[in-house]
Design brief:
5-stranded antiparallel β-sheet; 29% helix
């Protein structure tokens, strides 16, 4: 895959590209945390875990399924060093395109394993 990216001039992680295309914000740092099936109940559970600072538990509890609409959780730092969580809807069908469901300001990133994208 890296060879194809070099041949076609694609350097960015596809998850980073997806996030950048779905928002107008510019980011200094982007971390992917995890994703889960998009239901209102799961979103409420995620927010409860966020308030309790138990995102590792949320990661175990909330399942991801590539054959369904999912929410992806990103931790970002903007150009002014403001931290936030971005919850992105990643639809199973190619249309509609991904979109930001919610952006939640943070003082600190939670202590959870994340993959740095930028």
């Amino acid at each position: 895959m890296k060879l194809l990216n070099k041949i076609f001039g694609i350097n960015k992680n596809p998850m980073l590209t997806k996030l950048e295309k779905s928002t107008e914000f510019k980011f200094k740092e982007v971390f992917y945390c995890f994703g889960f099936i998009y239901t209102e109940e799961n979103l409420i559970r995620f927010k409860e875990h966020l308030e309790l600072n138990s995102l590792e538990e949320a990661k175990k509890e909330l399942l991801f399924d590539v054959a369904q609409d999912n929410l992806e959780v990103y931790f970002v730092t903007d150009l002014f060093s403001n931290k936030s969580i971005i919850i992105l809807i990643d639809y199973y069908e190619p249309l509609p395109k991904e979109k930001v469901l919610e952006q939640i300001p943070l003082k600190e990133f939670p202590n959870i394993e994340m993959k740095k994208l930028k």
